Amino acid sequence: MNPLQDVFISYGRADSLGFAAKLNQRLVEAGLEVWFDFDDIPLGVDYQKQIDDGIDKADNFVFVIAPHSINSPYCGLEVERALQRNKRIFPILHVEEISRETWQERNPNGTDAQWEEYCAAGKHSSFPNMHPAIGKINWVYCREGADDFEKAFQDLLSLFQRNRDYVHQHTALLNRALEWDSNSRQPQHLLVDETLQASTAWLKTQFGDRQPPCLPTKLHGEFIAESLKYSQDGMTEIFLCHAASDQDILGKVDEAISRAGLTAWSSERDIKSGVDFQDAIKQGIETTDNVVYLLSAESVKSSYCQFEIDYALSLNKRIIPVLIESIDLKTIHPGIQKLQFIDLTPLAEGKDGTVAMGELLKTIQQEADYFKTYKRLLVKALRWERQLQNPSILLRGHELQRYAAWQQVAQKRSQHQPLPLQTEYIETSLKQPPDVELNVFIISHARDLDFARKLNETLQVQGERTWFEGDRTELGDEYLSLATAGIERAENVVFVVSEVALTDTTVLNEIEIAAARSKRIVAVSYQESGWALVEQLQGKTTAPEEPNKPAAASPLPTALRNCYAVDFCEHDGDFVANFGNLYRLIKSHPDYVREHTQLLMRATNWEQTDRDDSSLLRAKEVVKAESWLVDAEKLSPPPAELHKTYIQASHELSARKVKWRSLFGVSGGMTFLIFMARIFLLLQGAELWAYDHFLRQRPNEEPDDRFLVVTIDDSSGSYLRDGLVSGEYKPWLGTLPDDALAEVLDVLNENGARLIGLDFYRDFPAANSDLANTLASSDNFLGVCKLTGDGESSVQKPPEVDISQVSFANMLGDRPGGIDYLRRQYLMDYSDPPDCETNTSLSLTLAKEYLKQEGLEFTSPAKSEGGFRMNGLQFGDTVIPNISQARGPYYQYDGTLNGYQTLVNFRTAPNLEQPSKKDVEHFADQVTLEALLENQVPQEQIADRIVLIGYTDQADNNTDIWDTPYGSVSGVFLQGQMASQLISATLDERALISWWSLGEELLWILAWAIVGGTLSRQLIRGERLGGGLMISMVLLYSSCWIAMIYAALWISFIPPLLALNLSAGGVGILSYRLRNP
Fold first, then answer.
1. pLDDT per residue over 841-854, tens digit each?
2. Within a domain: residue 182?
3. Is 703 domain-assigned?
């Protein structure tokens, strides 16, 4: 009808029409909106309704006092309307009374009697019949001829300005409340958000020692209270427990509560038709902060009241007993007998109950925040329990932190502690993983809360995790940041479409946030007008009337133009059927949408941490994300720009490479560590194992025809024992009977043996004179002695043999597990007088004597001051290298490498018994002692050869057995192998085992360390790096194999192998840290 006005002018036309018209004109000129009947009652309308509406919509009610207005029933109705609406009233005294002449002008046919009757009724004056309320208010005096109009007018304007905002809010809220009341108090007409906040603050405005300009009506209080209840999902601050007979006092208490800006639950107002009475009562108690119990004779006997108090006590609710009449205290419920009562009996008796009511309101306000939190937590916990502990209803994020902190304080209280159910609910919530994804984020306007709440509850019953905030005002400025975080975590965003929602800034901001993050948005409508908006959003509106004229730009958000939509008005408004359509939409492509959400959450966290690398995806996750991005081209919702930026940054991070200087630093460091490990012999065993392996790979060779080995095997031993038994040989202490040895030497000399070496000890004189003469006179015979060493004593040479024809028979063995293992050739060492005064080994002496006969000069490495020159042993131009510390496969520092030593390059032949193995014993021809003594050996096998005689019978104590890379071998064969390699190297240029210098080895190790580091830097994916390392190890193995096979060159294998992998690992760790900060 009427717009809101500043002033409503009520006057009597007979006395004040001209004055009222003038006042109206001046007020309008002053910029005020004025309701004046001559201007504001259209033709053809119910004028009384128009007048009532004008009063309702005016901030100020100006009543022009004159006899006609005082006595007019119409003006009386206007005053009553203004008083009913608690309007601010300004009476203006215009006419005190009218004269007989004035009356006569209005009543030309009037008589004296009629005038007397008129005066007797007080109608000629403004005072006799004045409304009491008008009489109590200070007037503005504006009598014609008596008062200054201008002064009165300025005073009136000044009065209008006092508390103008408060009075205008009174009017605005009144009209909102009237609209709500006229529309059957439907919730969509209630206050929401900032308007509700402002209205609540207005209702609680205190004027101190000043009179308020106007008081809120009962309707004001009810309207604001119901708005608060609606915004809080029906929760209240007070549950009114009373008997049915206490309606009068209940109404006064309820009105005072609503006037204080508090919400109350009462059975008369809040139990809807068709609802179970007892369930509604329980729900009302569960959702309230306090239970106010109106104690009367009837209420203490009421079974309903007792049920309500019992249930409230079971929930640890705060109960406030209020005495409204005298009762027997013994009849009060035992659970509240010890509580302090508030006496409201004066109010019940019709007296002033302001003080007592103030005490009640003060009690309710005490610890209000605690009991509000208690209530809300209880409601959530009960709902969780009743839905069989549905995990989608658990607390999360900021809300969980707030309730957990509250619980810690609440448990220390002596009264109203949390229930076990509340504690269990919080503890269960704390156990769930943080930042769990949400299935649905619901955007709605406060006026759509009924539908939005139902939608939220139905989704949660289906097990969906939702984000829905019914009361945005409580969170204040924090709401938008919390909502943004919720949208980012949500797989779907459901928007409840309505006209008011599309004009709400907060709602539009939420939609823009969801669209910016490419969320799947589903618009739902539950009103016909809402669906029309959805169709407009999706461009389904009709074309403009003029074909050539473009359609006007829509003010509606473009973010909703291509969104999904569900009309809940379909199927005759069947909520369940339409919810099924919505549910199918939000559950489509669940894996894709879940990945969309998870990636967005991580991308947002990356953005919020200033794009910190530690928030990016890891290598395997990048592959998965890139695959998802490919699928995203065919699915909805599409990825946001932040998705693409995040995945690209993650890809670049996963391909990030360490700097070259870091690679070289790691490689050098690993080389140094490996070198130190060698120094401390940590790699000695592994290196010797590798040396043996590669040595065994050398090919077989033709036997050395310069040698013949005479073996004293088990058959020869039997042969000799038979000779002793038959008397052919005389018994003697020692190794070989003198007669047999003399016979052997004769046979060999007769057949032209070039050199004869005896590889067993004879430290006793010969009993056979012929043997003694042979030993003493023979220039091709070489005997042996033994140097002291390895815990064993020395052994003397044969007494008959000149020292120049004596050599030491010692050999050098490594002793893993106590077993002698031979890899090295013992060439020279210090002599050991008096028993073994020679510095030359048997193998060296044999080679030296043989080569001397071949015309090759021997160069001794012995220094005059003692010791041996490095690589100083030579035969002609052939240098025999000697092993020293930190060279070759040995890094011993315990004296093991003393003397002059070299590595043995074994000459092998096929093993007839085991073809897969090689035989080092058949490096030359061999015959048994028995065959030799029986003249079964042809002369060509002996002539011009070096003949070695030694024990091979493992059952004989004179046999020395050595382990080698090729297996167990008797010492006589090893002596031959060592002599053979010296002679073959000199005469045949057969390669000796050689090795690199320390510097060359370090470069070799460093090179492979750099290879490993480079592979790790360049090859990002694990399978490629593994393949690269495998190829590198094959190349390393092949290099060592080729060097040993074709050049008899030992190149270390284990150290570079370790360097390759350790450097790759080191650079890999740096790369991992670089790519996974």
1. 999 999 999 999 99
2. no
3. yes
- Residue 1037: C-alpha distances to residues 678, 1030, 1049, 1051 (Å): 20, 11, 13, 10
User: How would you classify residue 947: left for phi > 0, otherwise alpha for psi between -120 and 50, otherwise beta?
Assistant: beta
State whether 146 and 255 are in the same domain.
no
Lowest pLDDT segment from 517-531, 547-561, 879-893: 547-561
Total of domains in the chain: 6
712 lies in the same domain as 811: yes
The amino acid sitting at 379 is V
The average pLDDT across 32-49 equals 79
Can you give the residue range of the structural domain that contains 739? 698-995
Residue 261 Rama label (left phi>0; alpha psi -120 to 50; beta): left
- Cβ-defined contacts of 130-139 (< 8 Å, 24+): 130/65, 130/70, 131/70, 131/76, 131/79, 133/79, 133/83, 133/89, 134/63, 134/65, 134/70, 134/79, 134/89, 134/91, 137/89, 137/90, 137/91, 138/91, 139/65, 139/91, 139/92, 139/93
Residue among 830, 825, 967, 969 at smallest CA distance from 890: 825
> What pairing do the DSSP bridges indicate for beta strands 900-903 and 824-828?
antiparallel
CA gap 68, 97 in Å, rounded: 9
CA dist list (Å): 904 to 824, 986, 994: 5, 15, 10
Q: What is the DSSP string of 501-568?
A: GGG-HHHHHHHHHHHHTT-EEEEEESSHHHHHHHHHHTT-SPPPSSTTSPPPPP-S-GGGTT-EEEET
Least confident range of 577-581, 613-617, 780-784, 986-990: 613-617
Q: Which two tokens stand for residue 1038?
A: 């092949």
CATH number of the domain residue 149 falls in:
3.40.50.10140
Q: What is the pLDDT of residues 363-394, one digit of tens each?
A: 999 999 999 999 999 999 998 998 888 888 88
Structural domain contains residue 693: no
CB 519 within 8 A of CB 487: yes
Q: Write the single-letter amino acid at 836.
A: C
pLDDT tens per residue across span 905-942: 999 998 878 887 899 999 999 999 999 999 999 999 99
Answer yes or no: is 257 within a domain.
yes
